[in-house]
Amino acid sequence: MSADTELIRILVVDDHPLVREGIAQQIELESDMTLVAEAPNGREAIQQFRTHRPNITLMDLQMPEMGGLDALIAIRNEFPEARILVLTTYKGDVQIMRALKAGARGYLLKNSLNEELMGAIRAVHAGKRALSAEASVEIAQHATDEPLTPAELRRNFPLAKRRSRGRCGIFSPNWVPTTALMPP
User: Fold this and answer.
1) Residues in a beta bridge with 11
2) Pick the residue with more confidence: 164 or 158?
3) Residues 58, 138: one domain?
4) In 3D, which of 49, 40, 34, 44 has the Cα closest to residue 14?
5) Which domain holds residue 164?
């Protein structure tokens, strides 16, 4: 790592000491990361965030005193640029969507491999979003549960017509994958 590159400063929030210790050991092995603080619940996470201003916060959802979702919301309200990556055992699409809508930049399950976690930390630090494969599947399985309303269909019809004529979308030489259009 060059002298010009700053370390990715990480706060780990989980109510299980063993989980925090394991993540801390993995972070210690990475030359571009450093653990700046740990917290066993959401209340302490907010305090630690204020004190240390980490680049990335790894946040569990289910914790005593204050859960991760409430802490995520509180931190993002005070620090809108906070980059929080949820790391949890809950893979349901409702939990995933709640966390993402609250401002989480990523969602991983605790059964993720170390390489996936470290890659997600780097991706979120770089301004991207990160979802585990299982979280992506959960979202995709329920993405069409609510079909478009007639008004939405009417509003989107002109776009579909242009795409079919090659003026935008996949048939156009200017096509951009939709993932590139997602705001960070």
Assistant:
1) 37, 57
2) 158
3) yes
4) 40
5) 151-181
